[in-house]
Design goal:
- The structure holds two protein chains of two kinds.
- Chain A has helices spanning about 20-35, 50-65, 75-85, 120-130, 150-160, 165-170, 185-195, 220-225, 260-270, 285-290, 305-315, 335-350, 355-360, 375-385, 430-445; strands at about 5, 10-15, 40-45, 70-75, 90-95, 105-110, 145, 175, 195-200, 235-240, 245-250, 275-280, 295-300, 320, 325-330, 365-375, 395, 400-405, 410-415, 420-425.
- Chain A is of the alpha/beta class.
- Chain A folds into three domains: about 5-150, Alpha-D-Glucose-1,6-Bisphosphate, subunit A, domain 3 (Alpha-D-Glucose-1,6-Bisphosphate, Chain A, domain 3, 3-Layer(aba) Sandwich); about 155-360, Alpha-D-Glucose-1,6-Bisphosphate, subunit A, domain 3 (Alpha-D-Glucose-1,6-Bisphosphate, Chain A, domain 3, 3-Layer(aba) Sandwich); about 365-445, TATA-Binding Protein.
- In chain A, strands 1-2-6-5-3-4-7 form a seven-stranded mixed beta sheet, sandwiched between helices. In chain A, strands 16-20-19-18-17 form a five-stranded antiparallel beta sheet. A four-stranded mixed beta sheet of chain A has the order 9-8-10-11, sandwiched between helices.
- Chain A is globular and about 65 Å long.
- Helices cover about 40% and strands about 20% of the residues of chain B.
- Chain B has 15 helices and 20 strands.
- In chain B, helix 1 (about 25-40) packs across helix 2, helix 9 (about 260-275) packs across helix 12 (about 340-355) and helix 14 (about 380-390) crosses helix 15.
- Chain B is globular and about 65 Å long.
- Classes of the chains: A alpha/beta, B alpha/beta.
- At the A-B interface, helix 1 and helix 2 of A face helix 1 and helix 2 of B.
């Protein structure tokens, strides 16, 4: 089957199969029409297919009469931040985040610097499907300008938000693996601003990914293998648009990406208590962290679009997901890997704790995950069939099937990006988590 | 009359109106078809100075990259330079973003093969088949290439010009030249070219900002400022290029237009003096070419209208020179394409080696009077009218290669449907203004008569 995912925040697929100039152009035309020929920011990660999408987007936005500020290779959170600073009407980010190098995607960003919300996304899709795109005559075509010096604007502002003096004094040594993606070369500036010594891994903006650009233990072997030798204080892995982070401790332990959000939340909520947004598939660690400071947790569907929008709507202080992405409303309404790393470094500096000690203080949960292949046409009906396994009063159907237990939970849902059904099970006991996973997995395998 | 359609797909490429028919999507699809046709490799991409250039160019980039080609950017660049570069760089082809002399809201794509020539008829047909079938060779990411930019895209062209021309004899004359680049791509190379030939230059309309100072065609009504400047500055000659710098019109030292037909006639006369041989030109070009060739025992071969037809004729006849009466000079020894720089170089060299002024050289060309006219008519009407006229004039000296051309003693008329508009073109030439008017009047009446009768 051909993989193409059209969602409210963008379009994602495999280059040469579903991601073609025509598709990219039609979406960019729709976006140019949607934002009424006004100023647009454009950024991309380092993927080899980037220039194809980039030139397709430029051509169509110009044709729709939009002026373009081209930020070149630019991580999504920086692009999102600059939307407001440069008073643009929106932005397009060309990056497939954590997907492998065969993929690419367009993500549409509104003038607040967040992913399009549901209403905006639906309007964009209506324009796309209608196919009536705005085309201006040649004397009203947009102009494209290369935007420079924006990294300083962003990092200055980040350093100010982090109140970075204490971090600077700590003079940390940090291993960062941006996976030759959008953060490559830019993590150097990040470290300069926070007075850290950088030990770079895969820090060439070549677009050749030595491993999948997904921050998680499986991809952390390189960082883990050099962190002790270099005597670094902490290690980070980034996805290709720098919206997600996973952490490696100074003694080489590769932490699940599930730790990133609760770790930062536990530190931030103490200073700034308030509502926290997360999705149904995120570890209960976040609820425990929120409980400590009497904060409530609101859960949304999976995806940055939903959690960040909910953060704004609920007046929450932060939002995040088990995938390693998080946003702090006071800084910007976007999942931000630089902010995430900055918060972790600041926490280490302030607490004068090693990262491994901080991890030890977190409640221990065991989370097990499984993906089962399933044709998308059947996925939703199979997911609702799984209900039979559970007592009706336990089941939450907001986003697939979520069943809450005393010691944990299980979440079963159709993937938004792949032809898969995802099962995530978490419990204080490893055996229980595994047992629940297998029960659901067997049922689904038989149904498929 | 039918409105002029805003899109034209023909042997000379694609042309359309920006904001209407010529969309990014269309441009990308053509680039994909072209890349699929050529295979994977370098493709030179250049543009004239039109405002819509970057929009179309980016669309082409996207299309080429998606089928595994590597775009090589020349930026704003004269067409002949793009063609020479395509050959010199061993690219598999090239795309020129230009609408030649069309108004500024138009733009288009012209397709160049690996030899640096426009695709010929059969190549265009194969390529358009791929476009229409939409069967593009999309590649996976592992076959993607990185676009590059050419730092000095006019260099190979300039080198060829200077290698060919007798630079020393031109330099010695220290000519004063006024040149109007018409805010077109020619401005990128012109100053360096004239400088290398030791000319003092006065340049007008050299800003390549896409805002054409006048309609980008070197026809008389666009030349007033240039004529005035030539006279005022006491220049030896004035030159005007079209927007993509493949055609040239000339102003003599008195500030008079010598007429665009004479650009080729002068070049042909000079070349045949140096090196006798055959000449290839199209059916609508001045008869002066035949007279000039006869003087030097050369022969003239006529082709259908269209640059590629002339170029193919030059190649197959091994001609020494060729071109079109619209100011397009083709010298195969430099490169087999219309080239305003070649035309300029040959004119200056002719002036230098002969020691004569441009008006004296002009006087030596047999004098003819030409009128280019048109009658409204759909292509179907044109087809029927030409069929009738062929029957009627079957016993005269006719050519039916492209519409109908009738040769008289010292005069001719050529009637053909336009490739780009719903009109019938009539061109006539004779030894006197009175005579040419008479011929034109007669044939216009015949045509309008047939039009009435048929409809």
């Amino acid at each position: 089957m051909k993989l193409l995912k059209i969602g409210i925040s963008g379009v994602r697929g495999i280059v040469g199969e579903t991601i073609t100039p025509e598709l990219v152009m039609n979406f960019a035309s729709a976006f140019g029409t949607f934002i009424n020929s006004q100023k647009v920011l454009l950024g991309r990660d380092t993927r080899v297919s980037g220039p194809m999408l980039h030139s397709a987007v430029i051509s169509t936005l110009l044709s729709a009469g939009c002026d373009i500020l081209d930020l070149g290779i630019c991580p999504a959170p920086v692009l999102q931040y600059m939307v407001r600073r440069l008073k643009a009407k929106g932005a397009i980010s060309i990056s497939a985040g954590h997907n492998d190098s065969n993929w690419n995607a367009l993500t549409f960003i509104n003038q607040e610097g967040t992913y399009l919300n549901e209403y905006q996304g639906e309007e964009l899709l209506d324009i796309y499907h209608l196919g009536k795109f705005r085309k201006v005559p040649s004397d009203r075509l947009g102009k494209v300008k290369l935007q420079k010096d924006y990294l300083d604007v962003y990092f200055k502002s980040l350093a100010q938000f982090l109140d970075s003096e204490i971090t600077k004094k700590a003079e940390f040594k940090v291993v960062i693996d941006p996976c030759n993606g959008g953060g490559a070369g830019i993590v150097d500036s990040f470290c300069q601003y926070l007075n850290c010594e950088l030990v770079p891994v895969n820090n060439e903006p070549s677009g050749y990914f030595p491993h999948d650009p997904e921050p998680r233990p499986r991809n952390a072997t390189e960082v883990a293998s050099i962190i002790k030798i270099t005597k670094a204080d902490v290690g980070f892995l980034l996805n290709s648009d720098v919206s997600r982070v996973s952490v490696v401790t100074e003694d080489g332990e590769t932490l699940s990406e599930e730790y990133t959000f609760p770790m930062v939340a536990g530190y931030y909520l103490r200073k700034k208590p308030g509502t926290v947004i997360t999705n149904h598939s995120t570890s209960r660690m976040i609820e425990d962290a929120a409980d400590c400071y009497g904060c409530s947790v609101v859960k949304t569907k999976v995806g940055q679009t939903y959690s960040v929008q909910s953060m704004i709507d609920e007046g929450a202080v932060m939002a995040g997901e088990g995938s390693g992405g998080l946003a702090i409303r006071e800084f910007q309404p976007a999942f931000d890997g630089f902010l995430t790393m900055g918060m972790i470094l600041k926490m280490m500096a302030e607490k004068k704790n090693k990262i491994s000690d901080i991890v030890k203080q977190l409640p221990k949960y065991h989370i097990v995950k499984e993906k089962i292949y399933c044709p998308p046409v059947k996925a939703h009906s199979i997911v609702s069939e799984v209900k039979k396994l559970y007592d009706t009063h336990e089941v939450n159907e907001l986003d697939g099937i979520k069943v809450e237990k005393e010691d944990g939970w299980i979440h079963i849902r159709a993937s938004a990006t792949e032809p898969m059904i995802r099962i995530i099970s978490e419990s204080k006991s490893k055996e229980t988590a595994q047992e629940r996973l297998e029960k659901a997995s067997n049922f689904i395998s038989q149904s498929v | 009359m039918k409105k002029r359609l805003p899109l034209k797909i023909s042997v000379s490429g694609v042309r359309g109106v920006v904001g209407d028919s010529l969309t990014p999507q269309l441009s990308a699809s053509f680039a994909q078809a072209f890349g699929s046709y050529l295979g994977r490799g370098k493709v030179v991409v250049g543009q004239d100075a039109r405002i819509s250039g970057p929009m179309i160019k980016n669309a082409i980039y996207s299309g080429l990259l998606s089928v595994g080609c590597q775009p090589v950017d020349t930026g704003i660049c004269p067409i002949p330079s793009i063609m020479v570069l395509t050959k010199e760089k061993k690219a598999i082809g090239g795309i020129a973003v230009t609408a030649s002399h069309n108004p500024k809201d138009w733009n288009g794509l012209k397709f160049i093969n690996g030899k640096g020539l426009y695709l010929n008829h059969s190549q265009v047909e194969e390529f358009l088949d791929i476009y229409h079938q939409g069967d593009f060779s999309l590649v996976k990411v592992d076959k993607y290439k990185t676009p590059t930019a050419e730092k000095n895209p006019t260099e190979p062209h300039l080198r060829k010009l200077l290698d060919y021309l007798n630079v020393d004899s031109i330099k010695r004359k220290r000519f004063t030249v006024v040149a109007d680049c018409c805010n077109g791509a020619g401005a990128v190379l012109l100053p360096r070219f004239l400088d290398a030939l030791g000319c003092r230059m006065i340049l007008i309309n050299t800003a390549v900002d896409g805002a054409f100072a006048h309609h980008p065609e070197p026809v008389p009504e666009n030349l007033t400022k240039l004529c005035h400047t030539v006279k005022e500055k006491k220049a030896d000659v004035g030159f005007i290029q079209d927007a993509d710098a493949d055609r040239l019109a000339i102003i003599n030292e008195k500030g008079e237009q010598i007429g665009e037909e004479l650009t080729l006639a002068l070049a042909v006369k000079y070349i045949l003096n140096k090196k006798p041989g055959s000449v290839v030109t199209n059916l609508s070009t001045t008869k002066a070419i035949d007279d000039i060739a006869r003087e030097s025992n050369g022969s003239v071969f006529r082709t259908k209208i269209g640059e590629i037809n002339v170029v193919e004729g030059i190649t197959s006849r091994k001609a020494v020179i060729g071109g079109e009466g619209n100011g397009g000079v083709i010298l195969p020894e430099i490169h087999p394409c219309r080239d305003s720089f070649t035309a300029m170089g040959l004119t200056l060299e002719y002036m230098a080696t002969s020691g004569k002024s441009i008006s004296q050289l002009q006087e030596e060309i047999p004098k003819y009077f030409m009128i280019k006219d048109k009658v409204d008519g759909t292509s179907e009407q044109a087809f029927r009218i030409i069929r009738e006229l062929k029957r009627k004039h079957a016993n005269e000296q006719i050519s039916t290669l492209d519409g109908l051309k009738i040769n008289f003693d010292d005069a001719w008329v050529h009637i053909r449907p336009s490739n780009t508009e719903p009109i019938i073109r009539i061109v006539a030439e004779a030894k006197s203004q009175k005579e040419v008017e008479k011929i034109l009047k007669k044939f216009k009446e015949e045509i309008t008569g047939l039009l009435k009768w048929k409809s």
